[in-house]
Design goal:
With about 600 residues, the chain is an alpha+beta fold. It has helices at about 1-10, 10-25, 40-50, 55, 65-75, 185-200, 200-210, 225-235, 255-260, 270, 285-290, 295, 335-345, 390-400, 435-440, 445-450, 460-465, 490-500, 510-520, 545-550, 555-570, and strands at about 80-95, 95-105, 115-125, 130, 145-155, 160, 170-180, 220-225, 240-255, 260-265, 285, 300-310, 315-320, 330, 350-355, 365-370, 415, 420-425. It has a four-stranded antiparallel sheet with strand order 1-2-3-4, with helices on one face. A hairpin with a 4-residue loop joins strand 12 (about 300-310) and strand 13 (about 315-320). Helix 14 packs across helix 17, helix 14 (about 390-400) packs across helix 21 and helix 16 crosses helix 18. The longest helix has 18 residues, at about 10-25. The protein is elongated. About 40% of the residues are buried. Residues about 1-30 and about 535-550 have low confidence and may be disordered.
Length: about 600
């Protein structure tokens, strides 16, 4: 019929076509097809960037609601902190156009932003220029049924090692709570319940579940035995959650005072620092684990990928190569450390042990335990009165004045010096009326040292304390205390200091360094870590270089020899006789002070 109509009325047909053209122009709002597409491109990108997804969807050829959902969730799997768009070149060809843009996606956690160039086609419609909608508008690599995701591969946390390279952490029971994303009936419900039990951010847990491969087991939280026992029944109520027992070198160590503790994904340290939840994350919370956190944990490998609905990776769009964690090697001897642990296990009281290598200053063992209602002492940084153990230092000062080990020095019940009366605590008995100085030292007779303080000037004891490194500046990766000896203001305070009372404070480490100096004859700074790159001041230095750097004078061979005799007598027959073990000769001194 139309063919016949065209043949019979050709002029009328032409008139109708002209009218149709006029009507079409009216429907197009009076705009010609060569109008610029740039305003539409700018509006679409700005709405996308600012989260006005529905308005952006209305500028496309797709269903606005569907487009808005796609734009809203486009970077959800990336856990993007921010997105910015900038317009690029636009080319037009009649009723079609193509626009290029630059996208910058902030992936968070101090990572470099992911930048890529996108492009999309536009078509001239009855409503003006519109973006031809498809998933490739978001990113050229996307197709129907695919999505963007971030794959983060965390390296294993490196070990803290002993001097021989053995791990100081022990294999111990650990519990790994996780899910198989593809088997969850409601990932949102699982994330919500899990977040409520653990305190983790529900949204971040959900995003990790949604971003993970559907069929693989996704570990969400690593728990030590105590934490698992506390949360066990609550975790059992989380839908779809599976808890697996595993064994790892993570929570237990033979040297916890040095190695420190490790927190996992639910650590408050992450939340305080604003670190987003990441399955498998660990953080050092004390000790060397905390000091060397960045070194031990390394850097994760991060990839932006395209995956299908089942979570299978189809392509990699961008990759940031990580690096493995690097171990930290310490000076600790696993054998000496184990011996220190056994020694502490033999007593129920609060105690601390520090063992050092006398000729280098390397710390070989550090151990501590609470007991008897007293908190655990701090072996490296604690500040404690030394009591009679300080008589090693005061004896060195007295020997410098010419005092001899065989000089008779009475050990009286009380001694009055500078208007103050000093007594022995505990009482010292059985030394006779005129014991020799060596016997006074061996039995810790404080009144003898109080009386002998009259041989010293106010500065003599402080200068000797300096020669023993008390108050010295040393740098260790962990807090430490080198001791302090206040300058006495009168004879009474000098007497108190000489017997190890007064305001003197030391750490177990400081006293170990004093004993080491008597053993080796030279002063050394303590060292704890031998990992390359540590500050030079943390390594041992020779007595000669230390004396040169600090102005200290070395102890004379005569004084060192006399101190060794005194300390051997204390162990062999004096107050420290309990340490006179079979085997090599043991040297030492005991002290008691109110604390």
């Amino acid at each position: 019929m139309r063919a016949a109509f065209a043949r019979s009325h050709p002029l009328r047909l032409g008139a109708l076509l002209v009218v149709a053209a006029v009507i079409a122009a009216g429907l197009l709002g009076g705009r010609a097809p060569d109008a610029s597409a740039e305003p539409t491109v700018q509006s679409f990108l700005l709405d996308w960037e600012q989260g006005q997804y529905l308005h952006a969807g209305e500028l496309t050829t797709g269903d606005p609601q569907a487009v808005a959902l796609a734009l809203r969730t486009s970077y959800q799997q990336l856990d993007a902190a921010a997105v910015s768009m900038s317009i690029g070149a636009i080319s037009q060809h009649g009723n079609t156009a193509e626009a290029h843009f630059q996208a910058s996606v902030d992936l968070g956690q101090d990572g470099a932003p992911w930048a890529y160039e996108g492009r999309f086609a536009l078509a001239w419609t009855g409503s003006g220029w519109r973006v031809k909608w498809s998933p490739s508008v978001i990113n050229p690599a996307l197709r129907a049924g695919t999505r963007l995701a971030v794959r983060t591969t965390l390296p294993s946390r490196a070990m803290v090692l002993g001097a021989g390279g053995q791990p100081l952490q022990r294999m111990a029971s650990t519990y790994l709570a996780g899910v198989r994303p593809g088997r969850l009936a409601d990932p949102q419900a699982t994330a919500a319940a899990f977040g409520q039990v653990t305190g983790l951010d529900t949204g971040q847990v959900r995003d990790q579940i949604l971003a993970a491969p559907r069929d693989a087991f996704l570990g969400l939280l690593t728990l030590d035995p105590d934490s698992y026992a506390r949360l066990r029944h609550q975790l059992a109520a989380v839908p779809g959650l599976v808890v697996r027992p595993v064994r790892r070198r993570l929570f237990d160590s033979i040297a916890p005072a040095v190695v420190g503790s490790v927190g996992t994904e639910d650590s408050t340290s992450f939340r305080q620092d604003g670190v987003a939840y990441q399955p498998g994350d660990t953080v050092g919370e004390s000790g060397l684990q905390q000091y060397y956190q960045r070194k031990l944990v390394g850097m994760p490998t991060t990839e932006v990928v395209v995956e299908d609905a089942a979570g299978h990776q189809l392509s990699v769009l961008k990759s940031w190569q990580g690096r493995p964690g690097q171990p930290v090697r310490t000076t600790l001897s696993t054998g000496v450390q184990s011996a220190a642990n056994r020694a502490l296990a033999g007593t129920s009281g609060a105690a601390a042990i520090v063992a050092v290598h006398a000729s280098t200053g390397k710390i070989l063992a550090v151990a501590a335990q609470p007991g008897g209602g007293i908190a655990q002492p701090d072996p490296l940084a604690g500040r404690y009165p030394p009591g009679q153990a300080f008589t090693i230092v005061s004896s060195a000062a007295l020997l410098d004045t010419g005092l001899s080990l065989t000089d008779p020095v009475p050990c009286t019940t009380a001694s009055d010096v500078g208007g103050q009366t000093f007594t022995n605590d505990p009482a010292t008995r059985g030394l006779g009326a005129q014991p020799l100085f060596g016997a006074d030292f061996a039995h810790g007779c404080g009144t003898a040292f109080a009386g002998l303080s009259r041989r010293l000037s106010l500065g003599d004891l402080s200068r000797m304390a300096d020669q023993f490194g008390l108050g010295a500046s040393w740098r260790l990766p962990l807090p430490s205390f080198a001791g302090s000896v206040p300058e006495p203001s009168d004879d009474a305070q000098l007497a108190a200091n000489t017997m190890g009372a007064g305001g003197i404070q030391v750490s177990p480490l400081a006293m170990a360094m004093i004993a080491a100096q008597v053993d080796s004859g030279g002063w050394h700074t303590p060292s704890l870590v031998t990992t390359a790159g540590d500050p030079p001041a943390a390594s041992a230095v020779s007595a000669a270089s230390a004396a040169s750097a600090t102005g200290k004078a070395e102890l004379s061979d005569q004084v060192v020899g006399a101190l060794r005799s005194l300390m051997r007598a204390s162990v062999r027959s004096g107050a420290a006789h309990g340490a006179n073990l079979d085997g090599p000769a043991v040297y030492g001194q005991t002290g008691q002070a109110a604390f």
